[in-house]
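Here is one chain, start to finish.
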Amino acid sequence: MEDYLQGCRAALQESRPLHVVLGNEACDLDSMVSALALAFYLTKTTEAEEVFIPVLNIKRSELPLRGDNVFFLQKVHIPETLLIFRDEIDLCALHQAGLLTLILVDHHVLPKSDMALEEAVAEVIDHRPIEQKHCPPCHVSVELVGSCATLVTERILQGAPEILDRETATLLHGTIILDCVNMDLKIGKATPKDKKYVEKLEVLFPDLPERNEIFDCLQKAKFDVSGLTTEQMLRKDQKVIYRQGVKAAISAVYMDLAAFLQRPDLLADLGTFCQAHSYDALVAMTIFFDTHNEPVRQLAVFCPHVSLRMMICGALERSHSPALQLTPFPTTHPDLQAYLQGSTQVSRKKLLPLLQEALSAYSDSMKIPAGQPETVGASVEQVDKGLDRAGNSLTPGLSQDEDDPPLPPTPMNSLVDECPLDQGLPKLSAEAVFEKCSQISLSQSPTAALSKK
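Its structure:
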């Protein structure tokens, strides 16, 4: 694989037709490995002197945010310097020159920014339900399995199993196991085909890492933020909401709140982060397991605008559906309010409706009635009225403290906005895995056991 990737970088320096195998914009482990393995296979099995290049659909600077990707590349001794990222190849220029053929893996819909490339798409391999309105008019192979790497493995073993080396087999094997949650039947992510090809890889390469070992290592790497800057930590798992001209981010941060608040230059970093992305407010939900393996969630609300911070914090503190059971956490930072969250089952997903309504209420409170002089900020009375409206107008179906589905929908990656491809067998984000572990941990705790008696 390493020699092959070196050849790919050399091919970029030449003016020649290229077949680019492109993963999705999330560039999770499945997307990255599927692109690498399929491009490697096509290169080894194509007689003509065609060049197949795997491209990671993110900027190079974003790779450190994907800890499991970084860990696995290091484990199989593939230098990151050999990889080709989206900001290192001009696909539009290649297409305009008539030199581009695209093969999509782990997605089948190009984002709006790439729609001009659709006519260059020659093949698709994906494991999500097909979206007929947006699917390119080419050969499409879609099957609802737990991992796209399963379909790539099938393609290789049915086409030319002799080209498969241990390095590539290790990548495929570990990716399927991670995507299928260690083939856990209770979770139901793995299909018979996933199971079949994991077993086939283990027969071909008996010295592959043991399943529990590689799953645990990849999971640990996915949660590890020890080497990240504050800005990277906030971007690693982030959602953005926008209401009536007010923009806020909510980030899952995988560490203890106290440690997060003690980071050097935290306030300056938060301010720079919000300013760079035009966020009016930032909510960080810290997530970790305590020494008793019990899940812990905590909140930090950063907002330089006093009235908006009051609106957001008030909405969180007063919420009864869901009830967050917040306890103020001491902090000396101005513009920052922190809380311990008593209800560990209230996820970031369940906070979103509260924050959306708080932003709308704040925006309404800032509107100036005709004939009244303009004022700066909002009064306490305005905030209180806004909070009352927010509390009364929450959509019941969104904000009820009901159980999350067993697995969350696939996060938007290279899909068009609001494209309904989050059906079928979803991806697992780091927060999603925490959700599942939280439910299992709580169900097995002594308190839960007593409550069932």
